[in-house]
Amino acid sequence: MSAPLISLQGLSKSFQGNDVVKCVDLTIDKGEFFGILGPSGCGKTTLLKMIAGLEEPSAGRVIIDGHDMSAVPANRRPVNTVFQSYAIFPHMSLEDNISYGLKLKGIGSEELKKRVLDMLDVVDLKGLERRWPDQLSGGQLQRVALARALIMEPKVVLLDEPLAALDAKLRETMKYELVKIQKEIGVTFIMVTHDQQEALSMMDKIAVMNGGIIQQVDQPNLLYEKPKNLFVANFIGSANCLMGRVTKVEKGRTHIMLADLNQEIIAFSYENFKVSDCVQVIIRPEKLAFQDTELSSNHEKTINRVSGELLEITYHGGVSTLRVGFKNKNLKPLIISQLNNQDQTKDGYRIGSHVEVCWRLDAATLVADS
Q: How far apart are CA 148 and CA 273, in angstroms?
């Protein structure tokens, strides 16, 4: 197994006694599109800046390709950064912006021209090299900033929320473009974002941060399907969370008494939960269904059911979101997501109707109730 390209070892940063990043240990492999995801103020941008050399750690080390970067200034590290503002020079043409770093390194004119043309091809800007920044769209400006970083042939490209300034449609296009470019050239990308869908759709692996601490590092599907704690479950997509206490554990099945519903359910779990442990039962909205669906009829012995009242149906185009409440008004309503080729209003299922909500035993994830 090859050594990781980047290793963060006990990395910490404090500002005036406030711990912003707390003893982070993290490895990132060569060629990965790696995401650092978390809410505003969680320390993700500070972590990125320490990798870049733009912030000095209070403790810990940044190792890149086997070399300790502790005494290496930002301009000598094998990384380049694409900032949220793009930092494009307004008095330079597109071509001059992209070639700026090469000129500082004293690269000869013939090689410089070839590398610029090659990079314009990579970012799909060929033919626009003579344009000025104010003649470019937001997406084109972002690709100029990316080309300027890539042309220096760094081992790592750092991206600080590069899509935040784009409108929704352009952001979708640029998500695809960034992934395509990264896969074509094979350079390691580390991207900071607070947008969960952005991270899930783009990254090979994601570190979820909160309060300066890495909560979980995993592939996108595992973060969604198997969150390690309640924060990750709630931050990555939508989650229904039911609190309960373990009553029995047998053959990979955990029996839980739901505290607010006074009802026992069963979940598959391979964690080491014991009788009397308090747990959170996490179920994604798309894994819930009404009793009369195929889910119920085909899996009579492998589903859980809870009863409630249909409070709301919200149309979102291809899907609808349904909210089901309970007699205990202190319990948050369950959120159900259904494709709109399913008729959620059939058989009297309308606002105010009594409904049975079902889910399979393997649909829930259990995490310790912290």
A: 51
- Residues 39-91 have pLDDT tens digits of 999 999 999 999 999 999 999 999 999 999 999 999 999 999 998 777 889 99
Contacts of 279 (CB under 8 A, 6+ apart): 243, 244, 245, 246, 254, 256, 273, 366, 367, 368, 369
- Rounded (10°) angle between helices 94-104 and 138-150: 20
In 187-201, which positions are buried (b, 16+ CB within 10 angstroms) versus exposed (e)? bbbbbbbbbbebbbe
- Residue finishing a domain among 206, 234, 262: 234
Report whether 258 contacts 265 (CB < 8 A): yes
Residue 222, judged by CB atoms within 10 A of its CB (0-12, 13-18, 19+), counts as middle
**Burial class of residue 131, CB neighbours in 10 A (0-12, 13-18, 19+):** middle
Per-residue pLDDT at 286 exceeds 50: yes
Domain containing residue 342: CATH number: 2.40.50.100
Rounded CA-CA distance 280/234 in Å is 12
Q: From the centroid of its chain, how far is CA 170?
A: 19
